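User: For a teaching handout, I'd like to show students what a predicted protein-ligand complex looks like in token form. I'll give you the sequence and the SMILES for fe (ii) ion. Please answer with just the structure.
Assistant: Understood, here is the input followed by the structure.
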Amino acid sequence: MMHVYKAAPDVDVVTSTATISGFGNLAINAFVIHATEPVLVDTGAVRESEDFMAALRTVIDPADLRWIWLTHTDFDHIGSLHHLLEENERLRVITSFLGVGIMSLAAPLPIDRVHLVNPGQTVDVGDRTLTAVRPPAFDNPITTGLRDERSGIFFSADCFGALLDEVPECVEDLSDAALRTGQVFWATVDSSWLHTVDRAVFASELDRIRRLEPTMILSSHLPAARGSSMERLLDALAAVPDAPPFVGPDQAALEQMLAGITGVTG
Ligand SMILES: [Fe+2]
Ligand SMILES: [Fe+2]
């Protein structure tokens, strides 16, 4: 079920919750930045496109959007991308060169409607600039987050996501234990390469985010977090390299699960 809520005076969240059996619930967020040239950050999950469009229409007329900031091209981020491009001819997609390349293998982006950014580069959207920021954890080399220089909000893509028992609308409603456990587990799944990083280099990457001094952190897979929660988020991420690596269920486990469901063995 999609629903919408306000994370900041000029930012709406369009969200749904994916239940991952045996592991928890994951928010799947897109964001509308009500700039002079309105921006949609990501476009929901592929299988929820119809519901996503209906929810989006409750916070903005898609014809009024000017930009889609595509953080990366995973299926939980590109759901309504082409639908929106077809519906609104003025809409342009901010992404990286790699994003255009990957999309060309499935559903090419019209090249005259893309706007390429690399980390550190900015895009003017009328009343504010958006700065491209590489988050310290990601599951896809396309990943490009952003900082809204007017509001000070950092949109972190998959980074800081958490698998949770319940998904509230703000991180401040989560206990330290629920947030930390959920965040560490998510990052071991989504950014498993963190187990191999040089700890000092990773610490300096986390410092880079600390120095942004975000007023809020809006992750694709976490309830909205105030800037005052940043240290909780960074602390959890710092624990990931030394956390137990995630090992998914294997074929024997799958057969056991199926037997549990169907009552059939062998
Ligand atoms: Fe992803
Ligand atoms: Fe994602």
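For the handout, you might add this sentence: Residues 72, 74, 139-140, 158 surround fe (ii) ion (ligand 1) (CB under 6 Å).
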